């Protein structure tokens, strides 16, 4: 069973599109059609507004927390075509970078594994995916994948950092040769996997199964198995679990988790990838788990609120 | 409302304060079990494992006691209800565990099996305790309206001595029944029971039992007890008459009590593998189609059928926590009872449950530490689960960070160590605690960050004229080599120290070396040269001629390196500094040439 332990009244004046816990479950970032991004301290069941960030000129679709080793950094993306990176400096939150390289709404932002540095992937309705890399001293380098998805890209999600031959300990100080990958979902009903090769991003795989726009993709954390897992959800009401058994990443096979009665907006993995949270227009958040015989079962139902549940996120600790 | 965000959490018992003892103590038992060596084989090992099982059970019972006290003293009805529910759940857990201990861990054989089951029933059927107490403590027990009920209870539970004691009271109070009482008493006394020691074989016991059974039969047929329906019914019970026993349903309250009573009086040498048939039959008879089996019934039935995996599965479903199944399964695994058929993702049942349990602990602000130990004993995925969970522990205080760090270091989790140190360094820097930030980045072996912080220190020095965190910088030791900038910081501070101790020639040598060995960044050379001024103006000559030439060369390199534009931008202060330096250097050179050119003593 799952219970509500805290209700945060965000005072957003319009629909909330995303709510993300930080790494430790101590802070909550929310964003809304009211163009603002808010940050709350939610320790001990409390809710203290820490920041009300203004800067976007349209509905803000998603927020994403960077790894704490880079400081307190939050990225947001909006209908106004902008991606803004906010940073907490001397106790106050400020805009630290603004990216305006997209021609229409930016729908999704996702930070890469911290091992790669500070890199943000952004998916836009102009069909392109941008990769912003922090190079130091307030400077960001941009790489763009044009026409990643025809009509538009709705979601981006990074694969966990896995080093080939990672069983061998790298000599300290040496940067391991990571193979960077991420998944994207688009209005072309496709899930695509991108791989970086010689500094260039290439389309590695095209995963076809959905019959309508893909709304979210989530690459599951790795528990050391050679398999990779991606969850995707769509306007078509379906959630698929994609698995790839071989290390070379060649053959992905989908398994239908469930067909819901309405659009599914978001999918999100637990820390050890054993639970998947799904939220959608049917007004519910459900938790799914893979049973010992390989079938996915719904383990919990959180029925709350009026209107569709648009975002779901997993944090960890709660202070007593 | 549409502006609300809901924070949800899985209902977990770890948040119930009163269960804390359960988690803490069972953690200790768990660790002890993992570490216990299998030096003992066979019987000794079994004894050891049974003891572990008993330890777990006593922890459950202790917790039940606490919970019961809490329920009794709770004034808020909702809280009282919550505690009472918790007591029932704990009671059920102990009931199940106890049965598993008898059947699986101890693996009681025919004979002792029945005795264990009798103990089990006596321990868990408490509904009749009040009644028993009431009758026994009354003035004339045999006159009490519930007297025969209590006698029945004793008979049903095989408590012969206590039943006989009550019968004697009846005999003394009622002369007409003396004769019957004596006979019944005799039968009860003579009833053969399985022995725990090796004093008789099963066959011997069965033979004796057969004779006794026949004797009881004769008395019944002779209508010896015909005038007292109570005693006649008892005689029928002794004969294992199903209907007679079932009539006492309300005194038994559960089908498993019925089962054990039936076995006692019809098949005391029952073998473990025969239990399932009796169990199913008894449950059906007892419930009689009026009610359907509850989850607890299903679990117990699975145990009687020796379907261990079924027991675990049903318990997992019925209980709201992983505690029970994780610890029980681990114990059963140590008894080598679980087939290691691999589950879908390759891990076995024991590990699967321990991982679930331990993961749950990580969402608690202090129980997570126990979680670490559980992960340690999961050979396949324990480590990676630990890596993923430990990164999410909020590092609110330095102490907590150090605690987490120690755990990572002990397990050679280098990535996590680096990550935590970087996070702490960044945190310290954000709060302007440079010394702490530097400490952490050294520990993280983060050269880039160390350089950044060293620059901050140097900047602060230029602005304020003094260093903060001297202790730290003075004691850098070999970690100074982490980054060039850090080395410079350390050496520069050393220069200041030497100067402070008036060890001028050493200071001078160091100062020069910082420039000539390119340890100092070019941006700092002006500062260093300015630092050289007081040394040049000492009464005693400090810099040698060669050193002076070097200094001059450094100054020239510095000024030559400036573009015309920079020279134009240099304010008066800068120009004056350069002039002063040139003058001081020239004067020093003059003095040192004379000094070096002069012979000793002349």
Give a short summary of the structure.
Chain A is mainly beta and 320 residues long. Chain A is 0% helix and 53% strand.
Question: What does the model show?
Answer:
Chain B: It is found in: Nucleus, Nuclear pore complex. Chain B: One of its GO terms (cellular component) is nuclear pore outer ring. Chain B: Component of the nuclear pore complex (NPC). Chain B: Keywords: Membrane, mRNA transport, Nuclear pore complex, Nucleus, Protein transport, Translocation, Transport. The complex is a heterodimer of chains A (320) and B (602). In chain A, a hairpin with a 5-residue loop joins strand 22 and strand 23. Chain A starts with a strand and ends in a 17-residue tail after the last strand. Mean pLDDT of chain A is 88; it is low at 304-310 and 316-320. Chain A is mainly β. Chain A contains no helices and 25 strands. Helix content of chain A is 0%, strand content 53%. With 602 residues, chain B is an all-alpha fold. Among the domains of chain B are: 120-270, no CATH class; 339-393, no CATH class; 397-501, no CATH class; 504-511 and 518-561 and 571-601, no CATH class. Chain B contains 31 helices and one strand. Chain B has helices at 20-35, 42-73, 77-105, 112-124, 129-136, 147-156, 160-173, 178-190, 202-221, 229-238, 242-247, 249-252, 255-266, 275-287, 295-304, 308-318, 323-334, 349-361, 368-376, 382-390, 398-410, 414-430, 434-443, 447-464, 470-474, 484-500, 504-516, 525-536, 545-561, 564-569, 572-597; one strand spanning 4-10. Chain B is rod-shaped and about 140 Å long. The N and C termini of chain B lie far apart (99 Å). At the A-B interface, strand 1 of A face strand 1, helix 18, helix 20 and helix 22 of B.
Strand order in the sheet with the most strands of chain A: 2-3-4-5
Biggest sheet layout of chain B:
none
- The amount of helix of chain B comes to 55-70%
Distance between the termini of chain A: 20 Å
Mean pLDDT of chain A: 88
Average pLDDT level of chain B: 88
Low-confidence stretches of chain A: 304-310, 316-320
Which chain pair has the greatest contact? A-B, 64 and 48 residues
Beta-strand content estimate of chain B: under 5%
């Amino acid at each position: 069973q799952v219970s509500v332990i805290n209700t945060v009244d965000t005072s957003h004046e319009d629909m909330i599109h995303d709510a993300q816990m930080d790494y430790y479950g101590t802070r909550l970032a929310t964003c809304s059609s009211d163009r603002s991004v808010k940050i709350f301290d939610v320790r001990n069941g409390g809710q203290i507004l820490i920041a009300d960030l203004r800067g976007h000129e349209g509905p803000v679709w998603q927020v994403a927390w960077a790894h704490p080793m880079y400081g307190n950094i939050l990225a947001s993306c909006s209908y106004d075509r902008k991606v803004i990176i906010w940073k907490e400096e001397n106790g106050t939150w400020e805009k630290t970078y603004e990216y305006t390289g997209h021609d229409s709404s930016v729908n999704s932002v996702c930070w890469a594994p911290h091992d790669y540095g500070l890199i943000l992937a952004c998916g836009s309705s102009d069909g392109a995916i941008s990769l912003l890399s922090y190079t130091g001293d307030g400077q960001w380098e941009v790489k763009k994948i044009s026409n990643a998805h025809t009509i538009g890209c709705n979601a981006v999600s990074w694969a966990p950092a896995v080093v080939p031959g990672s069983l061998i300990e790298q000599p300290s100080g040496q940067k391991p040769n990571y193979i960077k990958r991420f998944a994207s979902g688009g209005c072309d009903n496709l899930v695509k996997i991108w791989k970086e090769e010689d500094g260039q991003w290439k389309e590695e795989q095209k995963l076809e199964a959905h019959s309508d726009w893909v709304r979210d993709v989530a690459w599951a954390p790795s528990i050391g198995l050679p398999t990779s897992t991606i969850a995707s959800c769509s306007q078509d009401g379906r959630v698929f679990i994609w698995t790839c058994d071989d290390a070379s990443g060649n053959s992905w096979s989908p398994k239908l988790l469930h067909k819901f009665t309405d659009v599914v907006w978001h999918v999100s993995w637990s820390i050890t990838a054993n639970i998947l949270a799904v939220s959608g227009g049917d007004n519910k958040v459900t938790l799914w788990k893979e049973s010992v015989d390989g079938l996915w079962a719904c383990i919990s139902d959180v029925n709350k609120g009026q209107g569709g549940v648009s975002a779901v996120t997993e944090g960890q600790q709660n202070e007593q | 409302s549409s502006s609300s965000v809901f924070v949800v959490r899985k209902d977990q018992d770890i948040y119930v304060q009163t269960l804390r003892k359960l988690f803490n103590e069972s953690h200790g038992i768990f660790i002890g079990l993992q570490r216990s060596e299998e030096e003992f084989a066979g019987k000794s090992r079994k004894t050891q494992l049974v003891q572990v099982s008993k330890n777990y059970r006593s922890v459950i019972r202790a917790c039940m006691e606490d919970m019961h006290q809490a329920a009794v003293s709770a004034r808020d009805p909702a809280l009282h209800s919550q505690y009472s529910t918790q007591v029932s759940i704990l009671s059920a857990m102990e009931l199940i565990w106890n049965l598993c201990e008898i059947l699986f861990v101890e693996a009681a054989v025919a004979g002792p099996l029945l005795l264990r089951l009798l103990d089990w029933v006596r321990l868990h059927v408490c509904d009749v305790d009040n009644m028993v107490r009431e009758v026994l403590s009354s003035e004339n027990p045999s006159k009490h309206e519930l007297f025969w009920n209590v006698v029945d209870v004793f008979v049903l539970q095989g408590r012969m001595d206590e039943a006989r004691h009550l019968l004697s009271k009846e005999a003394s109070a009622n002369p007409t029944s003396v004769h019957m009482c004596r006979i019944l008493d005799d039968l009860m006394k003579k009833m053969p029971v399985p022995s725990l020691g090796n004093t008789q074989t099963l066959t011997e016991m069965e033979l004796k039992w057969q004779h006794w059974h026949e004797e009881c039969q004769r008395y019944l047929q002779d209508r010896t007890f015909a005038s007292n329906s109570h005693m006649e019914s008892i005689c029928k019970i002794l004969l294992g008459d199903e209907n007679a026993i079932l009539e006492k349903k309300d005194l038994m309250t559960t089908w498993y009590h019925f089962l054990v009573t039936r076995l006692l009086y019809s098949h005391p040498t029952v073998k473990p593998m025969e239990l399932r048939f009796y169990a199913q039959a008894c449950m059906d008879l007892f419930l009689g189609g009026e009610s359907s089996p509850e989850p607890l019934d299903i679990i117990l039935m699975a145990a009687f059928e020796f379907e261990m995996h079924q027991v675990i599965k049903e318990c997992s479903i019925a209980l709201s926590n992983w505690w029970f199944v994780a610890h029980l399964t681990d114990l059963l695994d140590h008894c080598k009872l679980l087939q290691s058929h691999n589950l879908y993702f390759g891990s076995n049942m024991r590990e699967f449950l321990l991982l679930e349990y331990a993961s749950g602990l990580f969402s608690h602000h202090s129980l997570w530490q126990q979680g670490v130990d559980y992960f340690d004993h999961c050979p396949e995925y324990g480590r990676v689960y630990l890596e993923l969970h430990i990164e999410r522990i909020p590092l609110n205080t330095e102490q907590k960070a150090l605690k987490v760090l120690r755990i990572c270091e002990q397990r050679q989790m280098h990535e996590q160590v680096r990550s935590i140190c970087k996070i702490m360094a960044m945190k310290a820097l954000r709060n302007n605690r440079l010394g702490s930030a530097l400490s952490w980045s050294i520990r993280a072996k983060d050269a880039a960050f160390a350089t950044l912080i060293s620059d901050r220190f140097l900047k602060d020095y230029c602005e304020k004229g003094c260093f903060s965190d001297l202790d730290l910088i003075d004691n850098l030791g070999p970690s100074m080599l982490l980054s060039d900038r850090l080395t410079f910081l350390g050496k520069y501070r050393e220069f200041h120290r030497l100067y402070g101790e008036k060890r001028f020639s050493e200071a001078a040598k160091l100062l020069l070396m910082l420039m000539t060995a390119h340890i100092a960044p070019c941006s700092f050379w002006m500062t260093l040269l300015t630092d050289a001024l007081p040394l040049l103006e000492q009464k005693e000559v400090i810099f040698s001629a060669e050193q002076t030439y070097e200094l001059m060369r450094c100054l020239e390199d510095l000024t030559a390196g400036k573009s015309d534009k920079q020279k134009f931008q240099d304010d008066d202060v800068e120009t004056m500094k350069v002039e002063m330096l040139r003058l001081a250097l020239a004067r020093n050179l003059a003095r040192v040439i004379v000094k070096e050119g002069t012979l000793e003593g002349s």
